[in-house]
Amino acid sequence: MTRRYLEDLAIGESWGSREVTIEEQDIIEFGRGFDPQPFHLDVEAAKASPFGGLIASGWHLASLAMRLCVEARSYGDTPVVGIGVDELRWYSPVRPGDRVHVERELVEILEVPDKPRRGTVKARVDLVNQNGDLVMRMYALSSVPKRKPADGEGAR
């Protein structure tokens, strides 16, 4: 695999990930470890919740989206550093047996004046279910190296 630098990226560039099936056991296991609410832990208790059944934690979905993005290696072998997330939203519950995938699009590429060797990339990351419904959206911010420093920046 090759490296991709800030100069190689373009606004509008997009890709889709592989599809993952959300299993009941995965929902419960993540809930136990990180979001121990009844509608993530217990099938019977979840029936009495506002969701009417077991659902995946939103944090489970955000973590899964991260995994799918990393696996896709859309920056190739380039070391990319996550620097934040903007506007994380959950739109629809994800239930056992649902299948989800990521659709990602680069929406902003910025020079960073005080960091001549790196720039910032903002990507819209959508998690979509098997019916084409948007279940989660976030804007991931990444620090991506430049191929070479800006003119006059030398070896800083």
From TrEMBL:
Domain MaoC-like per the UniProt entry, residue ranges: 11-122
Domain of life of the source: Bacteria
Pfam hit, one: MaoC_dehydratas
Protein's UniProt name: MaoC family dehydratase
Native source organism of the sequence: Paraburkholderia youngii
